[in-house]
User: Which sequence fits this backbone?
């Protein structure tokens, strides 16, 4: 959590943390440390044990000062204009960073975090190293990943808020299914056939009404399309009676915190295979819930779900031959300012669940040519086990 | 443009281009080269003069194959599972990249592009270098920036489409202003006072209806708030008669291409200062339009606008003392899969405008305590000068 940063720097051997992003919207690392929206981003500098400094474009001083960093300066304070004139805009950035680090007396091992085109990162890092700075890399999870992993209470509140709003959208979605009927094998709503694009447009409007932003879209896949867990095509498909309708939505609330939620439905009587898949996924999710608690290695709930689904005769990632049928993805991932972060509930992740972890629990089953079923809720690990952040019923048939 | 990549590699001395992103939504560089949405991103590998290879998660094979790269493989094909088992998830990524580069016979100078947390970039690049790969950095603009800069015809079509949809939203916005009246100095619409949050909610719904995504929000600032060019606060402000209403919107259409559009309005009679600022900005934009053509250095339209506004007694970036009053930002920037890319119409940018450049032209004037005026359109540079991609009237008073 936020207050862990000095301890993490100490433990990982960093004397300074520098976080850069072109905008807070495109850089969750920067957004996390500044806690305000900065359109053109900035450079955050924190020496171990000291108060941080934030340097932004002159244009962004107003919004930068609305965040939690109390010392905010502008690029102009470090001579950006003359650096641009002398070196051109590209090299000026590396020179500016050097000027800021020197002015702040940064020395020792530096974690340079945030988002940059890698080509530019290589240039900047080589540049800083030639000037004597010790820029240290690390494999993921990085220091910022670890700091962001366990959520503070106020972050959980934001995620819960995103969840509540998501559930409002889901309720409207279910109401459409409830009010639909089937005519000649097709699903009909309000006098005309219900298609994916028609439903998608409704979802986009409902999200807008709730102030939710669909930063990376959402998944609505029906029938055989739903056998692809990441179906993203824009094709307009008419929804048929009894076939799976898989709806996976991962929007952001105003400050960028995300929720992630999946249900699978059908209108009219489901085929026996769909009913079996649904029941197995429901039981798999319960198996995961039974395993989630403090101090359990992240891979354990995943492995238990695999073992359960294997007992139901589905291929899982424990089997070498798993491909596109059965349980074919991880069990879950952390969410926060991004839609995929620590901790990952996947195989070989021996890191233990801790209080404040916020993860998705999303088992799924897929049958090529037929369709898929996935159920997903977000939980936070608590002293008594876990809590679902936005409760909502699970009902297949409408 | 897209077909320039081999020539750019040759000119910049790269033997291979590798582009990595965690998702196409968060990595315009990857989105550009694969031309499809891939939720978990992937690794794109292109040797100079050869066809590219794309490697993705097993889960994303379906969507990856919908893109323009014809050879798509999965991480599993390069032994990801055993690498994860042996090295853990973090180092496994660097090992995977090594395995892919070796298997493809990549040698010589490598441009490693895309988006990664810089801490991880440093680890990966150091790792590859220790294994004998020559990973070369460059200041911005990078090879990918240069390739993406001049747009192909189909990209301009996407941007124009985003523009048309944006104009539909703007027309609805203007209709609300048109149908508003003033009562006791406040703007009233449909029986109740018009506030920024009420208008913002309408804008979000209109965008959703058009299939536009507000990836980084939008700006609606009224009265003194509009003196901050990047006003982002969430405060609900009641709109008053005659004060500036600054509306800046930069949404993405379905494939991620952006538009960027700003108008400034008022309801009721504007104050004389607002009228003067509006006229000066309008004339400044015309001054820019008069300067924009092929082969003109990017800084020229900017400098001309500064000179014009200086003649109108406004401070500009040509003056050392410019701060928060006058023309206080650049004239424009490229747009495409991002909302800020090459070419930048700013000082010291001596790069010349070329056919296919797509840039915003957005002069603005700001008066602290009073408000701001900005007008923005997107143009593409053509053989005959330039074309505005989505024409729309400019009218201050409603």
Assistant:
């Amino acid at each position: 959590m936020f207050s862990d940063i000095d301890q993490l720097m100490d433990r990982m051997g960093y004397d300074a943390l520098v976080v850069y992003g072109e905008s807070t919207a495109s850089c969750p690392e920067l957004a996390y440390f500044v806690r305000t929206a900065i359109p053109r981003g900035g450079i955050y500098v924190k020496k171990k044990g000291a108060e941080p400094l934030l340097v932004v474009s002159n244009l962004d001083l107003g919004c930068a000062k609305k965040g939690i960093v109390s010392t905010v300066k502008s690029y102009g304070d470090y001579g950006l204009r003359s650096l641009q004139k002398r070196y051109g805009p590209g090299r000026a950035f590396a020179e500016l960073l050097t000027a800021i680090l020197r002015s702040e007396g940064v020395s020792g091992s530096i974690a340079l975090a945030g988002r940059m085109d890698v080509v530019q990162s290589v240039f900047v890092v080589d540049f800083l190293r030639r000037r004597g700075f010790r820029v240290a890399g690390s494999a993921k999870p990085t220091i910022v990943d670890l700091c962001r992993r366990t959520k503070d209470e106020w972050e959980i509140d934001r995620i819960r808020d995103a969840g509540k709003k998501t559930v409002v959208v889901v309720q409207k979605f279910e109401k459409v299914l409830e009010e639909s009927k089937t005519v000649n094998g097709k699903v009909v709503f309000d006098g005309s056939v219900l298609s994916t694009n028609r439903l998608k447009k409704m979802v986009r409007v409902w999200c807008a009404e709730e102030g939710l932003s669909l930063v990376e879209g959402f998944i609505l896949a029906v029938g055989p399309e739903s056998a692809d867990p990441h179906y993203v095509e824009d094709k307009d498909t008419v929804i048929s009676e009894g076939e799976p309708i898989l709806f996976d939505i991962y929007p952001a609330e105003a400050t960028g915190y995300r929720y992630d939620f999946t249900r699978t439905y059908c209108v009219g009587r489901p085929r026996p295979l769909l009913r079996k898949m649904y029941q197995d996924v429901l039981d798999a999710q319960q198996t995961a819930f039974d395993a989630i608690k403090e101090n359990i290695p992240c891979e354990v709930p995943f492995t238990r779900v695999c073992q359960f689904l294997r007992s139901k005769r589905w291929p899982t990632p424990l089997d070498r031959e798993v491909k596109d049928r059965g349980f074919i993805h991880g069990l879950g991932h952390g969410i926060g300012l991004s839609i995929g972060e620590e901790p990952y509930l996947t195989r070989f992740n021996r890191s233990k669940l801790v209080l404040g972890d916020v993860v998705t629990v999303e088992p799924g089953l897929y049958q090529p040519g037929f369709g898929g079923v996935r159920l997903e809720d977000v939980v936070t690990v608590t002293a008594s086990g876990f809590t679902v952040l936005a409760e909502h019923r699970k009902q297949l048939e409408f």
The mean pLDDT of chain B is 96. Chain B has two domains: 2-147, 150-388. The first helix of chain B runs from residue 5 to 12.
